[in-house]
Amino acid sequence: MIKRRDTHIDSLWERLKEPRVQRVVETVLLGKRRWPKEVLRDDKRYALDLGLRKDENGIFKPANPIYQEVIARELSEDFQDDPIY
Fold first, then answer.
1. What is the pLDDT of residues 45-80, one digit of tens each?
2. Which 8-state DSSP code applies to residue 56?
3. SS3 state of residue 76
4. Does residue 83 lie in a domain region?
5. Would you say residue 62 lies in a domain?
6. Is the dihedral of CA 71, 13, 16, 66 positive or negative?
7. How far apart are CA 70 and CA 82, in angstroms?
8. Which has the closest alpha carbon to 71: 10, 3, 16?
9. Which DSSP string corresponds to 10-41?
10. N or C: which terminus of the chain has fewer CB atoms within 10 Å of its end residue's CB?
11. Any idea what the CATH number is for the domain that residue 51 is in?
């Protein structure tokens, strides 16, 4: 499903390009327990509505394993494509 880039995965890829989503995703991927000042309430709600994050025992996590994989692939795409890495 991820490699086929089904429609909803393509949509997620586009959302990951938005700065407001990037700020939230960075916090989630780092497993932080507090939101940085630059992450606005609307940004957090937007990511929650998109299913990109959840709060589990006070730790911010990706909402599901598929999105976690897609996010990791998208954010490391430049490294994957570069023959030096």
1. 998 888 888 888 877 788 887 777 777 777 766 656
2. E
3. coil
4. no
5. yes
6. negative
7. 19
8. 16
9. HHHHHHTTSHHHHHHHHHHHTT-SS--TTS-H
10. C
11. 1.10.10
Q: What is the DSSP letter of 54?
A: E
Model confidence over 3-38: pLDDT tens digits? 555 566 777 778 888 999 988 988 887 777 788 888
Beta-carbon contacts of residue 31 (< 8 Å; ≥ 6 apart): 59, 60, 61
Per the listing, tokens 């890495």 go with 85
Domain containing 59 equals: 7-77
> Rounded to an integer, what distance in angstroms lies between the CA atom of residue 67 and that of residue 73?
10
The C-alpha atoms of residue 27 and residue 35 are separated, in whole angstroms, by: 7
The helix (H) or strand (E) run that includes residue 9 is helix 7-15
Domain count, the chain: 1
**Residue 72 is assigned to a structural domain of this protein:** yes
First to last CA, the chain: 25
- Classify residue 82: in a domain, yes or no: no
